[in-house]
Amino acid sequence: MVQGTHPGRPGQGMGIPTLAGPSAQSLPPLLDLPEPERLPTGDDVVDLPEEVLCESARSMRAATGRKIWVWMAIVGFVSWGALAMVFLGSLTPLFLFLPIFAIAEPSFVASLLNGLGASPGVVLFIAFGSAPLGALAGLGAAALGLRSVARLRPREYLTEKEFRRAIGWSFAKWILCPELAVIVLSMILTALPGNTFILADFSYIVVSGYLQMLVIALLSAPLAAGLARASNPLKLPGLGELEMRRQAAIGTDNYGHYTRVLFAQDRRHLPRNRFIANPRVVAQSFRTIARYRWWQVLTVAVLVVPFYYFADFGQLFTFDGGVGDVSGATDFSLTTRIAALILLIAWLGAFAWLPPLVLSLFHLIPPSKRGVRDQRTYPTITERMAVNRWERGVVWVTTLGLAAVEAVCLIALLVVLQVTGDAALAGPVHLWVLGISGFAASALGMIATYRAMAIDLRTIVYGPAGWYMRREVPFSAIAPQRGTRTDLADDPRVRAALRERQAMKLGLPKDATLEQIAKAASRTGVLPDFGLGEEQVTPATVEPPTIKGEHDIPESLEELHAGRLTV
After folding, report:
1. Cβ(83)–Cβ(216) under 8 Å?
2. How far apart are CA 24 and CA 295, in angstroms?
3. Which end of the chain is more exposed for a tag (fewer CB within 10 A), N or C?
4. 475: burial class by Cβ within 10 Å (0-12, 13-18, 19+)?
């Protein structure tokens, strides 16, 4: 059984190699593999009662305990409070000390707010009301996260680690999405000409403030995901415990069982027999590259923000026009704002259209010239690149192409700043800081793009791994989609699935009639049970292929498709 690597959901990082595989040259190659079979997903899957983990979604929520609620409330309180202080600090760094000034000299706070043209009520609400509201948002994220967890399907994740990460992301996305929505909305309101939202300008220091807010929002997502996994709302055995059981079973029949529970075979071979750049491929390309490049924002913030804060502090003591003119000293013109927005859209758009374009061009290469020696999905990137030059070419061309697009967009932004005169108003130091930080982030972004394409290229081409394989875990669903687990026995589809499995267990065709099943069962002394009794039929077991040596790379098409779990 082939064990591939698969990164999983937004913000999960690199997939973990499964078993230590052999050298790519130690096995006979497999070429001209057929198109992998698309398996039913979502509502098309029939879950038997004994394959559902929890009695119902309500019982699952009741059994989770208070820990997940407390952690999500803390994350919401801290992240929203930090967002508020950073936003106020972007108006002027003096707002970072607003509570101290409010206690020591209230009149100074009033004059400062009047000088900036900001409403005292709005500023005080942002300063002191954001954190409590964030705690309430965290409680809402916990409730929505539990609802998302109830809809997960463990068998459709390539590894157990990916499934645990999906549990964490089920909570993190409800923490992250509202924060991103508020950041985007406030940025739009601030950037509009003649706005009355806190400020009437859009300056370097305001841009750096929004950059910091974006960093805080992005960091809150992995924090929430990690705390959610640590809370273990489903009370599942830890990954370390499962791995210890697998290692302890080396040399026994249970070793293969534990291995198939932790890892599944990636059936998505490259190059695909027929590739079509449809909207799903475009959307998946954007999600994949954006997910791996979020830390690029952190790099820009670390390089840019300290300079702008020191520069703004200096303006407070050197500018002659008063406090009200400080933030407007480096105000961007409307032309610069529009040009920056267009360049940003062009840069982000390259995330979506560049990988499908490269894939379409590479699929035009004749099969004899693709340099593919083996289409199997090997455990490591190094092994896959060694036997598949076609895949290596797609990864590198996309990486270098996106780096070129970034460089063009950054140079165009610097030219716009010069043409509009915004660069002269800000001074050459601002341009140097912007240029150095931008090109440094672009260089680091090349690493992120390479990792995204090398790890997740199969997801871009085919879609999720769960569309083509099923991991051999005891339960197929967390909770019933409707009603309770007991109610599933009354579902006609469940009864049909039980009858089908009973027929296959007796060696009959899966569409055998009740009379045929009863006749075969009478010869074996086993009475069929279609879900009407107290005991449910045990699911049909799948005989795994024999594990050869210390790896599970198939050596033939028969071994490649052995052990497939059908629903």
Report:
1. yes
2. 33
3. C
4. middle
How does DSSP classify residue 237?
Answer: P
- Range from 80-89, 121-130, 156-165, 430-439 that averages highest in pLDDT: 156-165
**Cα separation of 61 and 68, whole Å?**
10
Following CA atoms 396, 398, 401, 405 in sequence, which dihedral angle do they give, to the nearest 10 degrees?
-140
Residue 337: pLDDT over 70: yes
pLDDT at 387: 87
On whether the CB atoms of residues 521 and 73 are closer than 8 A, the answer is no
Tokens of residue 167, six digits: 């549990």
Give SS3 for 197: coil
Q: At what angle do helices 239-248 and 160-191 cross, to 10 degrees?
A: 150
The residue with tokens 């409010």 is 102
Residue 48 and residue 51: Cα distance in Å, rounded? 5
CB 439 within 8 A of CB 279: no
| Closest by Cα among 94, 196, 147, 49 to 533 | 49
Check whether the bond before 120 is cis (ω within 30° of 0). no
Instruction: Return the closest-CA partner of residue 480 out of 470, 471, 472, 489.
Output: 489
Rounded CA gap, 478 and 491, in Å? 18
Q: Which residues contact 346 (CB under 8 A, 6 or more apart)?
A: 405, 409
The first and second tokens of residue 526, run together, are 């086993």
Q: Are 207 and 69 in contact (CB under 8 A)?
A: no
**Whole-angstrom distance, CA of residue 196 vs CA of residue 193:** 9
Position with higher pLDDT, 431 vs 363: 363
In angstroms, rounded to a whole number, what is the distance separating the alpha carbons of residues 191 and 207?
Answer: 10
Q: DSSP labels for 16-81? A: PP-S----TTSS----SPPPPPPPP-GGGSPPPGGGBSSS-HHHHHHHS-SHHHHHHHHHHHHHHH
The answer to pTM > 0.85 is no
- What's the CA gap between 5 and 266, in Å, rounded? 8
Q: Whole-angstrom Cα distance, residue 48 to residue 567?
A: 10
Measured distance CA(217)–CA(211) in Å, rounded: 10
First-to-last C-alpha distance (Å) of the chain? 19
Would the CA dihedral through 467, 471, 475, 478 be positive or negative?
A: negative
Query: What is the spatial distance between Cα 52 and Cα 475, in angstroms, rounded to a whole number?
Result: 5
pLDDT value at residue 166: 93
Q: What is the pLDDT of residue 285?
A: 95
H helix intervals, 319-388 = 334-362, 381-387
Report CA-CA distances (Å) from 65 to 59, 150, 239.
Answer: 11, 15, 21
Instruction: For tokens 């009740």, name the residue.
Output: 514
Q: What residue spans define the domains of the chain?
A: 42-467, 492-560
Closest listed residue to residue 141, CA positions, set 39, 228, 72 = 72
Tell me what the mean pLDDT of segment 53-67 comes to: 86
Q: Which residue would you say has higher pLDDT here, 90 or 418?
A: 418
